[in-house]
Structure formats: C-alpha cells, structure tokens
Amino acid sequence: MPQSKILVDTNTYLRLAQTIRPLLFMPFGDNEYCLYILPELNDELANRRLNSKFPWVDEEEYIENRKSFPTVGRKQKRVILTNFDFIWDFVQTELPGPSRVDALYIAYALELGVPVVTDDQDMTELAKEFEVPVMPTLKLLKVMHESNHADLKKVKGIVEYWRAIGDCPANLHRDLKTFFPEL
User: Fold this and answer.
1) CA-CA-CA-CA torsion for 24, 130, 40, 168, nearest 10 degrees?
2) Count of domains observed in the chain
3) 69 located within any domain
4) Which of 9, 29, 104, 171 has the highest local Cβ count within 10 Å?
5) What is the pTM of this model?
6) Could you list the residue range(s) of the whole structural domain that residue 61 is in?
7) CA nearest 125: which of 146, 149, 144, 98?
8) Beta partners for 35?
9) Could you tell me if residue 152 is inside a domain?
10) C-beta of residue 151 within 8 angstroms of C-beta of residue 4
C-alpha cells in the first residue's frame, strides 16, 4: 500500500518531535500515514532565536530524522513553483500574515494532494483559500492514537507539556473537546 503523506509545519514539528520519536518518515497505521517536512523547515531551524529556544534540534537524532522529504519529479517541482508564485502573490495582496515557508507548504500540498498539519491560523486560512486539506496538531494526534501510534497517556502528556511551557496550539480547548473529549 502506498504511503499517505502528511506535511507538518514548523510549529507542529517543534511541538511533537521530542515526544514522538522518530516523528518523521515513520509509516504508521493501516493507511501507512507518514509525516514529512519541507527542506525549508531546516533553514528555519537554523535561525538563532529558534535554535536557542529549541537546542535539541541540533542533536544528531533530530538532524538525521529531518533528512527525508517528499519526493517530487521535475514536472511536479515546476507546478509547485508556479503554485507558490500564485499563492505568494495572494498572500502579499489579499491575506498578509503567512510566511514564504507557509506558502511553500501550501504549494506542495496542493500539487501532491496531501494535508498540512498546522495550528497557525493565517496558514490555515490560506490553505482553505486554496482548498488544501488542513488539520490541527490535535487531529494528527487523534489519527496517531487511532492508529496505535500514540496512546492516550502520551497524548495527555503532550498536552500537559504544552500547557506547562505556555506553547499551546490555537484552539486547544475546542480541539480537545472535538478530538479527545476524554482528556
């Protein structure tokens, strides 16, 4: 069975990579879900501010796990770049807020026909504008839970950690009620 690719944005990666290991390029569930990042996420992680806040991203385990990206052919790459130009123009004229990397994620997802996991509300709005499926991190955790890739204890620990460090996804309370009413 072919993989069901899912793209995860920077925030989702940073919120999950230390707890669900390895996070990326590890198929799970009957649908063979597999999480990917774009190479540009590594560029973002090189940012000194992010690097000082998340020093673990430079550990070999995480660097190694961030070396696999969605495979795209030359024709797909051209379409992705065309999509990006159109999406970025839309951001600059209609929906200021998403970053260039956010727009690139949407461009990839549009061409590959895969969902993007993000809690960024601007990026979510941009994805919906271009009819790209988007899910919050808690929905991804629900998929992982239903696929026996993350048990309820792990999910609860992740949510408690987010609260403790003050880095909660947007709509945390609503999404908890929707996806994990038992927590």
Assistant:
1) -60
2) 1
3) yes
4) 9
5) 0.95
6) 4-73+115-123+132-137
7) 98
8) 6
9) no
10) no
